[in-house]
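TA notes, week 10

Several of you asked for a full example with nothing omitted. So below is the full record: structure tokens for the whole chain, then the designed sequence directly under it. When grading your own attempts, check the secondary structure regions first.
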């Protein structure tokens, strides 16, 4: 997989595929009953069509990783056409780009936004990492060389930035969370100075950078320099912590400077220290801002025809960037990788476009529920695969029908586990985050910034 969660890295090679799909980082959401016949996206409720896209993307990422062990013949046929992990990651990123600005602009509060991110993402993140260490103690999981530099690993995972800090991800899919966090930092900085609505400029800008610089910028340059991986990780965390502290508690000038300090740190890491090639990392940011641009078009902040035209331009540039730079990066076998990249990116864009076109239709409850638990699916499926591979009767060659049964059994077990973690970990912590934000508003007053953004639908 060339871009799976380098953390997905769907190149089509096992190493990159082990980095599979992003887990999207959706905003805090109210619970939806899986028994409901359908879920219609209405104002004040979760956007069910986005959940449907998340659910579909999550299943593609699971297939990407599970198919190393079962349904290998299906995997071979699919990968000859496109990379499902890369496809799933890009769908996730566009969904995130669409909905995250709404989370920030709904209240116009940087403090509330980061509290929502903290309570939305980190509880399950911490639970999953602890689970890996427990499983490792019983011989069921690998730490994936994250213990080679333990201090660096701690600081690199502290802000989910391990993949742009030169440290192996404790869980292979964590790599996409690094780009989610950088996007949040950029969005915060743009919001602090009131230019957050110019999403189309940033979408086109990152797409152009992917095309022009995608084969020139280095990988893991800072961490492999004389500075060392630990020093870079510690320095990056301190700059981000300091910047976000100023952005949350400072007045206008300190707030702006702090937000941009944190954002500049994240952008520097993407430009000079990411583990994926630059054409991929910059494409991710371009697609996230494209999702934001389409959100703004939906709410009348940019002409829809203009947004559609620029979205096509962004995807064309992203496709060209991969096709061009893959040829120079992999000169001995570019054809398959180019085909996977082109079709994966194009199909991700087409999927999102279809989702938008059908957004006002009722969404089947099963897809909406899959989106609800998609973060759990994303983070936990590699752990269950580790368990699956230790079960003796899953080894060896099986008839295709048996493989289908094994895959279905794995999926059923995964969804059961994810239901438990969502209702016992994710949902309660999201509610706690809302209460903490309300108490801070009551104690210190709201930190609202002026914004012309519209409420989230």
């Amino acid at each position: 997989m060339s871009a799976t969660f380098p953390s997905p890295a769907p190149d089509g090679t096992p190493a990159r595929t082990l980095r599979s799909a992003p887990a999207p980082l959706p905003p805090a959401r109210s619970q939806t009953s899986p028994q409901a016949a359908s879920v219609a996206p209405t104002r004040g409720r979760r956007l069910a069509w986005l959940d449907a896209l998340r659910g579909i993307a999550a299943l593609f990422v699971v297939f990407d990783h599970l198919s190393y062990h079962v349904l290998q013949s299906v995997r071979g046929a699919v990968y000859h056409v496109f990379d499902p992990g890369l496809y799933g990651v890009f769908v996730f990123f566009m969904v995130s780009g669409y909905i995250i600005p709404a989370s920030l602009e709904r209240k116009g509060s940087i403090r509330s936004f980061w509290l929502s991110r903290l309570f939305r993402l980190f509880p399950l993140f911490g639970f999953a990492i602890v689970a890996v260490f427990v499983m490792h103690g019983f011989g069921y999981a690998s730490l994936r060389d994250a213990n080679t530099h333990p201090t660096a690993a701690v600081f690199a995972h502290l802000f989910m930035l391990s993949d742009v800090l030169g440290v192996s991800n404790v869980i292979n899919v964590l790599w996409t969370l690094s780009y989610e966090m950088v996007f949040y930092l950029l969005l915060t900085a743009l919001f602090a100075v009131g230019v957050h609505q110019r999403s189309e400029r940033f979408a086109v800008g990152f797409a152009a950078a992917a095309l022009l610089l995608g084969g020139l910028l280095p990988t893991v340059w800072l961490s492999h320099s004389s500075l060392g991986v630990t020093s870079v990780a510690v320095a990056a965390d301190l700059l981000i912590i300091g910047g976000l502290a100023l952005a949350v508690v400072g007045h206008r000038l300190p707030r702006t400077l702090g937000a941009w300090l944190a954002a500049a740190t994240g952008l520097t890491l993407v430009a000079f220290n990411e583990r994926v090639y630059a054409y991929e990392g910059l494409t991710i940011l371009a697609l996230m801002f494209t999702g934001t641009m389409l959100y703004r078009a939906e709410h009348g902040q940019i002409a829809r025809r203009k947004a559609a035209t620029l979205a096509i331009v962004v995807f064309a540039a992203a496709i060209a960037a991969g096709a061009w730079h893959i040829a120079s990066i992999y000169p001995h076998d570019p054809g398959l990788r180019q085909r996977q990249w082109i079709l994966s990116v194009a199909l991700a864009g087409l999927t999102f476009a279809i989702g938008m076109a059908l957004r006002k239709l009722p969404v089947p409850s099963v897809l909406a529920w899959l989106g609800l638990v998609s973060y759990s699916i994303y983070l936990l499926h590699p752990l269950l695969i580790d368990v699956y591979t230790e079960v003796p009767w899953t080894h060896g060659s099986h008839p295709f029908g048996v493989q289908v049964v094994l895959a279905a059994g794995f999926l059923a077990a995964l969804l059961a586990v994810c239901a438990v973690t969502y209702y016992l970990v994710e949902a309660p912590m999201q509610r706690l985050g809302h209460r903490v934000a309300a108490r801070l508003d009551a104690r210190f007053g709201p930190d609202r910034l002026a914004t012309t953004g519209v409420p989230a639908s």
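The first strand starts at residue 38 and ends at 39. Use that as a sanity check on your answer.
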